[in-house]
Write a structure and sequence with these properties.
The complex is a heterotrimer of chains A (about 160), B (about 300) and C (about 800).
Chain A (H helix, E strand, L loop, with lengths): L2 E8 L2 E8 L4 H8 L18 E4 L2 E4 L12 E3 L12 H8 L9 H14 L5 H7 L11 H14 L1
Parallel strand pairs in A: 1-5
Antiparallel strand pairs in A: 1-2, 3-4, 3-5
Helix pairs in contact in A: 2-5
Chain B lengths: L2 E3 L2 E3 L10 E3 L4 H10 L4 E4 L5 H7 L6 E4 L9 E4 L3 E5 L4 H6 L1 H6 L1 H8 L4 H4 L4 H7 L7 H6 L3 E6 L2 E6 L4 E3 L2 E2 L6 E7 L7 E7 L10 E9 L7 E8 L9 H9 L4 H14 L10 H23 L2
Parallel strand pairs in B: 3-5, 4-5
Antiparallel strand pairs in B: 1-2, 6-7, 7-12, 8-9, 8-12, 10-11, 13-14, 14-15
Chain C lengths: L3 H6 L14 H6 L15 E7 L5 E7 L1 H5 L3 E6 L6 E2 L6 E2 L5 E2 L5 E7 L2 H10 L1 E6 L6 H4 L28 E9 L2 H7 L4 E9 L11 E6 L5 E5 L4 H12 L6 E5 L15 H8 L7 E4 L2 H7 L5 E10 L5 E13 L6 H9 L9 E10 L13 H19 L3 H8 L18 H11 L13 E12 L9 E7 L5 E5 L8 H13 L6 E3 L3 E2 L14 H28 L6 E4 L2 E4 L5 E3 L8 E2 L6 E2 L4 E6 L22 E12 L5 E11 L6 H20 L5 E2 L2 E2 L18 E7 L21 H13 L10 H10 L5
Parallel strand pairs in C: 1-14, 12-13, 16-17, 20-21, 30-33
Antiparallel strand pairs in C: 1-7, 2-6, 2-8, 3-7, 4-5, 9-17, 10-15, 11-12, 11-14, 13-22, 15-16, 18-29, 19-20, 19-28, 23-24, 24-25, 26-27, 29-30, 31-32
Classes of the chains: A alpha+beta (about 160), B alpha+beta (about 300), C alpha+beta (about 800).
Chain lengths: ~160, ~300, ~800
């Protein structure tokens, strides 16, 4: 099986890695770059725990080949806070009690950040729609939705 | 390979993707040539959202996975007021949904694409990929059919066009041959005064596969005895995306009333040949074809008669 | 200054305060470590499991030679290597199957290799020759004499005294209630109304978003370390050590954050596989990580249920008698599941006072996936039918269903189904609260002409189901800066227990909340013993241990300072990290005392020293029950009670059900952290909604048809109702910390019947067993000729 030498930027750091053809972006992040904040919940593009921002848009990193990511910009949950200052969605999800077991949380935060990047004032429906691909089994979602709404209102 | 117990299939995908070589050709010609030379052991991919799942499942065991994204203008959405809309094969569904031209002239495409899975999956999923995947449940296929879409195919012999009406052969089966790469889909200018609707019944409120999907597009047409034509396409109720022609004929021929719509809905139901599966029974699906066709046609009719 | 009376009598301010979760920041930044995130270096091996494709078969032979010969394979193990039995209440399971497979997915062999891919290839090379047997696929049939035996050796299995298997049958537990004389009531014709119903509840999965993962390492001396996503590090240590014949002290379990448990990570399921394989890898660690698909059918599932209810009441709507029969689809192994059938038995009246009750609860082996604990431990399944039946009986006697519940629900001192008295309970208040909050009796207009609205109510009760002597322990250690390290063995699985424990420790000790650190991850080598993180028992049981430990530390500090100041300890207190005297009005910071102690006067030496408090708790009062009548002095430690009500809208053209809003009221005794309590009520409601509307493991001839998120749908952000109004009722528990009792599981217990009753209110038809899919509701309406 062929290996590919790729260069990509993850959370602002330039990385040079050799990846086999069948390695997913999720495996690259977790196993090679040890960015374990991104979670593997189904490896089938269904649960959203592995959601990262790839070139400005959220993707299921289990559904992207690492080899495709040559030259890409990736942001993971580890890249949301800057110099110890949390992203507003990180702050509000804590305040609203939208975190329980925390396994879906990284993917939720990425989806929420991506939503607010493209829509500064989302309706409740738009928030729910943006989070449909992020399964959460603990919270019942309402506090997460509250957190995204609150983060949006804080930004405006 | 997937395991079986006697006749019963057991779904046991591998943790990761099987071994393959990732290929990124430099041009369409090179891509078609590679795919043709490795017929049966190479597969093109766009978003990969179905390819990777099927490879984990052990259904697809190709040695080569060929990235055909972004080749020769496949990444563009263009609109021409005289000839219509072109959507490149690499254009992901979120871009399609956000496109102002699509919103203004072909909102049905955006509406249907919006019902596909989740936002993050739609970052990868493409309209052309959804068509080439040829799932009977494909949410956007109906919209592409009623909007009279044409696929542009690059093969070893160069470019050709395939109308959607004859494109689908069976579940997951199309007329595409080894070496063929769908590069774009084009749509003519829609009929004047048209309205359209996609109604999807899934298990969850948003994001599920269609148990039944009904697409309806209606427009005034003096050539039709009723003064209108309504194009219909049904998802998840036949081996291929289904056009209930009898139902369309009823709506073209008889003055459109509640009774006519009911009759057309009944004809759509009669045309459908769904199966029982884990998502729903054939009986329920048929009943829903009737109810949702009635609902979709009624909504379209209320808009176009104004 | 705080008065002495205030400080000693009043509940501390911190108790009942919604402080932020102490694990939240780590969880939002990606810093929180889960088991799969731990790094083991290049020596790590990867395990995969060869599983049975048949629901029931004899293993004739296993050929592992090809797998062993594959380059990169380091070990291949089968059942031959591990003769011991394993199980929590009934030892009916081997780590790997030895002679027989009993469900599709039963582990037959295990492989360790240098990569997951190679391990997977090796698994494919293992050849197993089976002789296929007739499977048992229905619990009612399974309980009959005609059924083939799933465990012919049942009578030889080791079992705890309160579980009663029937030798020569598939019944691994038969729990009976004979309270009063139900037969006599039926024969006497005293009842003004009687209803009889049969209900089915399908198997469902827990679906934690984190799949099971375990990493095991066995060093040369034979000591075992297991890292895993675990609700039960101590139970796993105990059960696996026993099976392997090693000392508990040679088995160490380290359990980082758990990405959702809901019971699936309690007891032992796949962890023993990793340990067994690691015994053959010469010291190299082995990781076994289940795929999502394996997660659906190879770890514990919530068992299916076939339930019969017969209920009768007098003309005033007072319940007179119940006769209930439960056939639990326990699956291939019921080592844990047997106790659910017992719990359902001793709770079989539901939260009602019923003078005459006859119950038979059967745990039945089938060739379905293995039943195990899931949030509610039998109660959601049992209440699903019971609370619909109550509605039907209310209708039969012509009384409003909410009113009927008010009449019959348990009150303080009601006589329970097991013959003892109900402790202080706020259930009547919970009923009142949900009736008020849902505007009971008011019918709102639907949002569209083709829709109809309805409201439904359901009550619940549930006791922690566990051995009578399940214990807890804790320690509290003060650091140089007077911060507090709190050692507990209960696990943070999302419910917020670390936060609640830190609050209780801080309150009992007298320091600010943010001074407390929980010693995590839980590690059986260093953490104090805890039975399991199950049964909604931690706030109460571990909470008591934590309070005891904190009070022990407090006592040590106060005695020291009293000696130094020559004061009466009764006059001293610790407030906000300062030791104060109400008498002399002296004060001293904790940080000036702990660790180094205090100097004696005139440089004559030192007193005190490091402060470590210890605390334990174990209930001592739970008695046995008569095996023939189920009557006894005290069956359980206590019951948490509550009520839910919902408003739904049904689409008459598709059958789709939308839950518009929900209200929930539970008597939690005392909410240590009200927002965390409400979070449990909300999350539990949506999980309950998900099981009501979407979820079932679709088993066909023993084979799961929907082992993925594509076709096992769970509630998404689009399915949660617009509002869940959570109401806290507080009638204190006599032996709970500040009166607290558990809430984690209870919040999903009444949800299926509440939604079912609301659907009935909307359309006048009951759609059959859950999940209430659009299809089921529509076809039921079609049969009733009300569908459009």
């Amino acid at each position: 099986m062929a290996f590919h030498r790729i260069t990509l930027t993850v959370n602002g750091e330039i990385e040079l890695v050799d990846v086999p053809s069948n390695m997913t972006l999720l495996q690259l992040l977790r196993d090679k770059l040890v960015l374990t904040g991104t979670k593997n919940g189904c490896a089938a593009g269904e649960c959203g725990a592995c959601t990262v921002i790839l070139d400005g848009e959220p993707v299921n990193s289990c559904m992207v080949l690492a080899a495709e990511c040559d030259g890409a910009q990736v942001i993971t949950v580890e890249g949301l806070a800057h110099d110890g200052t949390l992203d507003p969605v990180q702050e509000t999800i804590i305040e609203q009690g939208g975190v329980q077991c925390g396994f879906c949380t990284p993917g939720i935060l990425i989806s929420a950040r991506a939503l607010l990047d493209r829509n500064v004032d989302p309706s409740d429906y738009e928030i729910r729609d943006a989070l449909v691909g992020n399964l959460c089994r603990c919270t019942g979602y309402l506090r997460i939705i509250d957190a995204v709404r609150e983060a949006a209102s804080r930004a405006s | 390979m997937p395991e079986t117990a006697g006749q019963t299939f057991i779904h046991t995908p591998t943790p990761g993707l099987p071994e393959f070589d990732y290929i990124k050709p430099a041009s369409l010609t090179a891509a078609s040539q590679f795919l043709a030379e490795h017929a049966g052991e190479a597969r093109p991919f766009m978003g990969g959202t179905d390819v990777f799942v099927r490879m984990r499942d052990g259904f697809w065991t190709e040695k080569y996975i060929v990235n055909v994204k972004g080749l020769d203008g496949m990444n563009d959405v263009t609109f021409d007021p005289t000839t219509g809309l072109t959507i490149g094969a690499s254009v992901n569904m979120n871009r399609l949904i956000a496109s102002l031209e699509v919103k203004e002239h072909y909102p049905l495409l955006a509406e249907a694409a919006h019902t596909v899975a989740s936002y993050q999956l739609r970052t990868r999923a493409t309209l052309v990929g959804n068509i080439c995947n040829a799932s009977p449940a494909g949410d956007t296929i109906g919209a592409c059919m009623v909007l009279d879409g044409t696929l542009h195919i690059h093969g070893v012999d160069g470019m050709r066009k395939e109308p959607l009406s004859t494109f689908f052969v069976g579940p997951g089966q199309t007329v595409l041959k080894p070496g063929d790469i769908a590069t774009a889909i084009t749509f003519p200018i829609p009929p004047a005064g048209y309205a359209a609707k996609y109604i999807k019944l899934g298990r969850n409120a948003i994001g599920d596969l269609a148990i039944v999907g009904v697409t309806a597009l209606g427009f005034p047409d003096r050539g039709a005895p009723s003064g209108y034509r309504v194009r219909l396409a049904l998802a998840s109720v036949a081996p291929i995306p289904l056009v209930p022609t009898q139902a369309e004929a009823i709506l073209a021929e008889k003055p459109i009333t509640e009774a006519t719509i009911n009759e057309a809905a009944q004809a759509a139901m009669d045309a459908s040949t769904p199966i029982d599966d884990v998502r729903g029974s054939a009986r329920y699906r048929k009943l829903m074809v009737k109810n949702l066709t009635r609902r979709a046609v009624t909504q379209v009719w209320e808009q176009i008669r104004e | 200054m705080v008065s002495k009376e205030m400080a000693s009598v009043k509940i501390p301010d911190l108790i009942g305060k919604s402080v932020p979760r102490l694990d939240a920041r780590d969880k939002v930044t990606g810093a929180a470590r889960f088991a799969d995130d731990l790094q083991f270096g290049p020596g790590l091996l990867y395990a995969r499991i060869k599983r049975s494709p048949f629901p029931h078969a004899i293993i004739k032979s296993i050929d592992i030679s090809k797998a062993q010969a594959l380059p990169g394979v380091k070990a291949v193990v089968t059942g031959k290597d591990f003769p011991g039995f394993i199980g929590l209440y009934l030892l009916d399971r081997h780590i790997f199957c030895r002679d027989r497979v009993r469900y599709v997915g039963d582990p037959v062999a295990g492989v360790a290799a240098v990569s997951e891919e190679i391990a997977e290839k090796a698994v494919e090379l293992i050849q197993v020759d089976y002789e296929v047997l007739e499977p048992v696929l229905d619990p009612e049939f399974g309980a009959s004499p005609d059924a083939p035996l799933v465990h012919p050796d049942l009578s030889e299995y080791e079992v705890v005294p309160f579980i009663l298997p029937r030798a020569g049958t598939n019944i691994s537990n038969h729990f009976k209630i004979r309270k009063g004389d139900a037969d006599g009531v039926w024969n006497s014709g005293q009842c003004a109304a009687v209803v009889e119903r049969k209900y089915r509840v399908p198997h469902v999965q827990h679906v934690p978003i984190e799949p099971h993962v375990a990493i095991a390492q066995v060093n040369e001396g034979g000591t075992v370390t297991l890292w895993g996503s675990s609700q039960s590090p101590f139970a796993q240590r105990n059960l696996i050590a026993k099976t392997l014949g090693i000392s508990q002290s040679d088995m160490r379990v380290i359990a980082p954050y758990v990405g959702g448990g809901f019971g699936s990570k309690a007891g032992v399921s796949m962890e023993a596989l990793a340990v067994a394989i690691a015994m053959k890898t010469k010291g190299r660690p082995v990781k076994l990580r289940l795929t999502r698909e394996e997660e659906f059918y190879t770890v514990f599932v919530r068992q299916g249920l076939v339930a019969y209810f017969k209920m009768g009441c007098d003309e005033n709507g007072r319940l007179l008698a119940m006769e209930n029969k439960f056939y639990w689809d326990g699956g291939a192994y019921t080592e844990y599941g047997v106790n659910m059938t017992r719990a359902a038995g001793y709770s079989s009246s539901g939260p009602y006072e019923v003078p005459h009750v006859k119950t038979d609860s059967y745990c039945v082996y089938t060739n379905h996936p293995v039943s195990g604990p899931m949030r509610g431990f039998g109660m959601p399944e049992m209440h699903a039918g019971l609370e619909q039946c109550i509605d039907d009986l209310a209708e039969a006697i012509g009384i409003d269903p909410a009113e009927f519940r008010k009449i019959n629900c348990l009150k303080t001192d009601s006589i329970l189904v097991t013959g003892s008295k109900m402790h202080a309970t706020g259930l009547p208040q919970c009923v009142q609260e949900v009736i008020r909050a849902i505007d009971w009796g008011r019918k709102e207009p639907p949002s569209a002409p083709h829709k109809r609205r309805g409201k439904g109510i359901a009550l619940m009760w549930k006791a922690p189901a566990m051995p009578p002597n399940a214990g807890s322990s804790a320690w509290v250690e003060l650091n140089e800066d007077a911060t507090v390290t709190l050692g507990v063995g209960g696990q943070e699985i999302g419910q917020g227990t670390f936060t609640a424990m830190a609050q209780m420790a801080a309150a009992a000790l007298g320091v600010p909340y943010d001074w407390v650190r929980v010693a995590a991850p839980v590690d059986t080598q260093y953490s104090p013993y805890e039975w399991q993180t199950v049964a909604s028992r931690l706030t109460w049981s571990m909470g008591n241990a934590v309070v005891n430990a904190a009070r022990d530390a407090r006592r040590q500090v106060i005695e020291l300072v009293a000696e130094a100041w020559d004061e009466d300890p009764e006059d001293l207190d610790i407030v906000a990290g300062e030791v104060i005297s109400y008498k002399s009005e002296e004060s001293i910071s904790l940080k000036d005392i702990v660790v180094y102690g205090l100097p004696k006067p005139n440089d004559s030496g030192w007193m005190g020293g490091p402060v470590v408090g210890r605390g334990t708790f174990m209930p001592t009062y739970v008695t046995g029950l008569d095996p023939e009548t189920g009557q006894g002095e005290r069956a359980v430690v206590h019951y948490t009670t509550g009520a839910q009500a919902v408003e739904v809208e049904v689409d008459m053209q598709t059958g789709a059900v939308e839950v518009l809003r929900a209200v929930a009221a539970f008597d939690v005794g005392k909410a240590i952290n009200p927002e965390l309590v409400k979070s449990q009520m909300e999350g539990g409601f949506v999980q309950g909604l998900s099981t009501a509307l979407f979820e079932s493991l679709q088993l066909k001839d023993g084979v799961l048809q929907n082992p993925s998120f594509v076709d096992y749908r769970i509630a998404t952000s689009s399915d949660a109702p617009a509002d869940i109004h959570a109401i806290i009722v507080e009638v204190p528990q006599d032996d709970g910390p500040w009166g607290a009792r558990g809430i984690g599981e209870h919040s999903m217990v009444p949800t299926i019947p509440a939604i079912a009753n609301a659907i009935y209110d909307a359309i006048g038809v009951r759609p059959g067993p859950p999940p209430f899919t659009a299809e089921k509701v529509y076809l039921a309406m079609l049969d009733a000729a009300i569908a459009e």
